[in-house]
Amino acid sequence: MKPSKILVYGDVMLDKYFIGSVSRISPEAPVPIVKVNKEMKTLGGSANVANNISSLKMSSTLLGIVGDDIYHQELADLCSHANIIFLPVISNFPTITKIRVIGEHQQITRLDFEDKIIINPQDLENIKKIINKLDHLEAIIISDYNKGSVSDEMCAFLLKFAKKENIPVFIDPKGNNWLKYNGAYMLTPNVKEICEILGRNIPNNDMDIEQAGKEVFAKYDFQNLLITRSEKGMTLLNKNNGHLKAYHIPTKAREVYDVSGAGDTVIAVVAWATVEGKSIEEAIHLANIAAGIVVSKLGTVPIELEELLCEIHQINSKIITADTLKTTIKNIKAKGKRIVFTNGCFDILHRGHTDYLRKAKELGDLLIIGVNSDESVRRLKGDGRPVNNTEDRTDLLSHLEFVDYVVVFNEDTPYELIKIIAPDILAKGGDYKAENVVGREFAKDVIIIPFVKGYSSTETLRKLSLNDSSIQ
After folding, report:
1. pLDDT for 53 beyond 80
2. CB neighbours (10 Å) of residue 241?
3. Count of domains observed in the chain
4. What residues contact residue 46 under an 8 Å CB cut-off, 6+ apart?
5. Considering the domain boundaries, does residue 1 fall inside one?
6. Is the N end or the C end of the chain the one with fewer CB atoms within 10 Å?
7. Which residues are CB-neighbours of 305 under 8 A, at least 6 positions away?
8. What b/e readout covers 449-459, taking b as 16+ CB neighbours within 10 angstroms?
């Protein structure tokens, strides 16, 4: 058994689709005849959660109850193909399977194969033994579809296990028994589930959803409540030092094709981002973006890391991370574009900078700027620098029309960035000699662009210091 970062436990399902065209009504009954052109099968329920994590390039272990039937084998084959470590617990219940018949892009009927799962004492002990043997876990996701796998006893054991291992538990809840979730790090209900647990209809606006979330916190014990609100985005209520704070995150408007599996994607991305070290605010923003992507697809389709990064890039426009840069560069080069790279601190943007950057852009099709992080600037120029922080410096550069991408690096030199980019032109400003430019071996050509005389950040700061007494 390979190490896995996230354990997914819950109601495992197999989703099957028969997709075709409709041209006539059956003579046997007043129902459409679907001429099947395509058959598709995907991982559903908690298996879809694990599939999302795997698609984000993180190892996951899926643990769930299945039947001794052909659907169990199909599910196992899909898990193997998706690089998911699947630990099935064989029972007398059928593997939960949902078959959807789709004609002319509309679902015509759904066939469900399932019975309410009841975990007997022996199965419970077997599951506990399996979990106790797992190591290297950094998070647990409980995916409850109210099919019986997520019993009170199972929740109590998983939450106790997580507390002992000091790892967070993320829960996608169902039903009206939320007491079994007490102690979780985060719950991710939708608006309908919030209405059900509070026993009343709640308008889907920020003020009413926030108030409903506060009522839920008053009744139950967990640290975070992330309410998914369809086209209205998400609301996070976070309990920190006894104080509740609410964040409302609007969604990007797009055509919704199929909402199946969107909740699975949300909880998977939040857990994945948390394990990756993102803050809770960053994690839910990523989950919101990912949910917007998957609802535009047919069926329970997982989010792919590449498409998530691509969407983030489009939203954040010119400011990208070094990791995103790899995918961006691959796409740029595939289009045959000529890349120019340069770098600097750009602490106080002045005419010398803009003149130099404009000339650099003229050397190719796209200009990528590497910007020293605050820590990097301090190491190079002393404790009094930078005057403007990383966010301010990159934001200003991103607003220049001749700048295409801005990426921050923490090292003293952009050597690793240049290695990733392998630019057509490596541009430097000032009186450098080409043979002394860092990273020149990765570029096709190195071009030195003279600075405009009389302009520099250091000189600007010196003048400000001399005139400090006149500054109001």
Report:
1. yes
2. 4
3. 2
4. 8, 9, 10, 11, 12, 13, 62, 64, 141, 143, 145, 149, 264
5. no
6. C
7. 55, 56, 57
8. beeeeebbbee
Q: Does 324 score more than 70 pLDDT?
A: yes
Q: Classify residue 132: in a domain, yes or no.
A: yes
- Mean pLDDT across the stretch 313-342? 81
Q: Which is nearest to 213 in space by CA: 233, 238, 176?
A: 238
241 has a pLDDT exceeding 50: yes
> Whose CA is closest to 172, among 45, 74, 281, 57?
45
Q: Do 357 and 392 belong together in one domain?
A: yes
Residue 51 buriedness (CB in 10 A; 0-12 / 13-18 / 19+): buried
**Whole-number Cα distances in Å, 435 to 357, 415, 417, 445, 448:** 21, 14, 18, 11, 11
Q: Which residues are catalytic?
A: 264
The per-residue pLDDT for range 260-290, each reduced to its tens digit, is 668 899 999 999 999 999 888 889 989 988 8
- Residue 272 makes CB contacts below 8 A (sequence gap 6+) with 6, 52, 53, 56, 58
Structural domain boundaries enclosing 186: 6-316
> In sequence order, what are the beta bridge partners of 56?
none
Domain boundary among 283, 316, 349: 316
Same domain, yes or no, for 347 and 263?
Answer: no
